[in-house]
């Protein structure tokens, strides 16, 4: 267990704490959950930076990091769908979760044929993740009442959350297209 793996494990352990705080019957539950989510997001960036910078990559880290990311994103999106109870959040959530399942399956399939490098994480995928994390943070924080700042009758964090959510959905579809395009010759090959 090196430092990046400890940070990744910490992120996984934060998930039940995040859910518990989200449901606490207190006034600050959404603020607390948003802060926990932000800390988890920073540990994601930080563990990757340390692993690359100090050459601490490992097979365990390569497995745990995407698992931690997917768990945190999918669980938080489910909570946001419940919080907002609107198709304007549910439909983007379905797109994001559907893409995660599709690309995870595609990567697993490509790895079986030794072609996983063809569908490694792209720059667009990283930008998509950043927008996704921002959307989740703002939407959770936007559930806190009362709002500090309203814009056209809506809390500022909710507006930022919706905007970030729809940008992340566009990037989600774009990155999925890039991955499927890279894998398409192998998916349609009769030689594999």
From TrEMBL:
Keywords: Lipid biosynthesis, Lipid metabolism, Membrane, Phospholipid biosynthesis, Phospholipid metabolism, Transferase, Transmembrane, Transmembrane helix. One of its GO terms (cellular component) is plasma membrane. One of its GO terms (biological process) is glycerophospholipid biosynthetic process. It is a multi-pass membrane protein. It is found in: Membrane. Its EC number is 2.7.8.5. The keyword Transmembrane helix applies. The chain crosses the membrane at residues 6-26, 71-97, 130-148, 154-180. It holds the Pfam family CDP-OH_P_transf. Belongs to the CDP-alcohol phosphatidyltransferase class-I family. This is CDP-diacylglycerol--glycerol-3-phosphate 3-phosphatidyltransferase. The lineage of its organism: Bacteria, Pseudomonadati, Pseudomonadota, Gammaproteobacteria, Oceanospirillales.
